[in-house]
Fold:
Amino acid sequence: MKTSITTAQAKKFADTAAPNKELYCSNITGFHLRKNAKGVSWRLKYLDATKKRRRVTIGGYPALHPQEAAQTAIEWRSGITKGEADPMAKREALAAQKRVQEQQQQQNQYKVTGRFFTDVYEPHLISNYRSGKEVASKIKNFSFLFERDMDKINSHDINAWYSRASTAGLKRQSIIGYLGAFKAMLNFAAGTKKGDQNNSPVIQFNPLRDYSLPRPNVQEREQLKRQKEQLQAKRDIFTPEIRTGIMQGLTAYAEKIRAQRRSSRKHGKPFLPDLDLVPFPHWFLPFAHIARLTGMRPSDIRSLRWEQLSYNRFNGETVLTFTPPKTEDKGIEPIEVKFPVSGELKEILSQWQEHHGNPTSGFIFKSERTGNQIERKAYLKHWKHVKDLGKLPKDLDFYAFRHNFISTLVKQNYRPLRIAKLVGHADETMIIKHYFHTDNEDMNELASVAAQSWAKAVGGE
Structure:
């Protein structure tokens, strides 16, 4: 069957017809030529199986001549009559299939470990986690796997990496941290990372979900034992000599800074503020006092803001409420610490606040250069000066203030959960694991019990 639309008629229609006009064929039902803003096209109108009127484009004019377009229209109408899928349904099915294939291809490209890390996970970490850059740097230890698909990674890959890392002297604790960060990324890629929903997983499951590091060898066990002993020693309560040295060091450092300022004012810089008139000539001094009186982490103190101090006029109590930065990225609801402010701590904060004009907002300790939060390790050089002036051990960590605070409370037999809430732990697990240890005096007493029983028995015969 031929179409009634001739080549000449089609050309004339294309050249002269107004937009949205249609030229119908009298021989083939529903077959027509349509003019629109973008050009001219061959179309077919028909009723589908549900008697719904449909319109489908066959092709463009003049790319298709009238008889070519008509032949397609006849074939499509024949298929509709035989109960086959109508042209529009076929076209929609093909389009849907193509979209699925494109999505699958798009998804498959992110199965590649390095591509997923660079394009998806690293930006996600940096945008959503304070420690995002640090975590990302840990994952980069597995860059040797970046060309591999994530679902093809296996235990042999990690065992080989573990062997190389151990041989290179990397501590097992660091290895555990690096592997944990890498496994977390694989969980995210599979959509199973706890507390961090990923609605577009690219792998079905984490191939390392059941993987555990090999048991430590003899050398590693000895190393872990030494590390544990060193850490345990740091968690002990300060001796009276250490406490005295710390206070003397802080006093001497304050005097040293004041003396330097007196010299500067005397020799050409009289415009500088007189530090003999203020309680703290340097920010590190109240910073250190807060550490010894609260057991806060250095990162906790750095992040403190004046607006976190609140006074309750009904009970006369002041509370410092804050979320430790270390815990902000853990869990859906970050840990909140409510630290009571009284006595020496209250006096120190009041003096420091008054010294700065009684601000009610902003960082309690801020950089004089930038006006922002002080740098992460800014306190370390000042701590070194204090240790030198106080004749303290060179390996005495500033973090020992926290250990001493917790150990002191443990020694006083306060409940572990109460201590945990005060120092910003999620529960009492860490307190019990690291701070509840038997003192040497207690051990000596236990060891002597059996000997005393023998001595009493022998003496009584």
User: Anything to note?
Assistant: The mean pLDDT is 88. The two ends are 131 Å apart (CA to CA). The domain at 7-107 is CATH 3.30.160.390 (Double Stranded RNA Binding Domain). DSSP finds 17 helices and seven strands in the chain.
